Amino acid sequence: MPVYILGIESSCDDTAAALIADDVILSNITANQDIHASFGGVVPELASRAHQQNIIPVIHAALQKANIGKNQLSAVAYTRGPGLLGSLLVGASFSKALAMGLNIPLIEVNHLQAHILAHFIRNTTRSNPVPSFPFLCLTVSGGHTQIVLVRDHFDMHIIGQTIDDAAGETFDKAAKIMGLPYPGGPVVDTLASKGDPMRFSFAKPNIPGLDFSFSGLKTSILYFLRDQLKLDENFIEKNKADLCASIQRTILDILLLRLEKAAGETGIREIAIAGGVSANSGLRSRLADLKHEKGWNIYIPPLAYTTDNAAMIAVTGYFKYLKKEFSSQSHAPYARSSF
Ligand code: KG4
Ligand code: ZN
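Structure tokens for the assembled complex are given below, as produced in the milestone run.
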């Protein structure tokens, strides 16, 4: 009998549920919240209200697609943090009630560990290659930018991280400055593919070690565009693709320089990426180049497991289930954490 885990994710603005049989995915449903687009970013109060509306239909859909009844569930796994507290509370309360009602174990999951463990999700038709331990994971999302040394499923060490903005946040803020819709990352990615990445130069950080900084780049984009708009009010419109390509190239330069340094210092050549920004086509193609140049083994998650999803919560729940690492009903969600 396989272990059936229902995974529930509600840390930001996506309400998601997934069903997994051991590490094989059966269903993975996400309800995106379009409501935030007109505000140019996630509005926490609106996000938690939307989670309340979405959570039951999303879980129903996940169970139905997997053709699993709730009485067959072995455990419920949910995102305890980090994230927006109001959003987390919806998923946490629902998961606790469901686990208690069904009298099955409750499993708490760290969202950042789950982004990394998404590499271990298998699908029914193929068994994808999984990274072997130890590996390095560049986790790049809207809220986090980290290089993680992964020695085992739950033996993870952050060896470098951003000291200010996250990479996804930088994509989103640059897009906002240019008047592009939210979330900006995918829009910049699409426009960048038609532009010249070397046309414009922006500031890059000069900090020691393996940490990242993106606030100087953001300011440099802001001032550059402010000056150009004084000379030509249509500057952004006329140069949109080249601007996106140059901004994306700079963000990727900053990320990859540190990743190369981390690989050099640790001697590890198993390299994975995770998080929303790992969907970026420029990052994916530059990693493919590095694979040949450096002799790295590269692990890039399928697009469905890059941005927030519940499949990654379910698979993390599965590994915890095997270790019998169950959670207490009294654990409250947390907004911030490392691992
Ligand atoms: O992991 P995620 O869904 O949520 C967080 O945990 O933050 O990441 C969302 C971030 C957003 O900043 C979004 O703009 C970025 O991922 N993103 C991308 C792309 N797709 C999503 N950034 C660059 N290129 C993309 N294709
Ligand atoms: Zn995330």
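Residues 235-266 form the longest helix (32 residues). The first strand starts at residue 4 and ends at 9. Further analysis is deferred to the final report.
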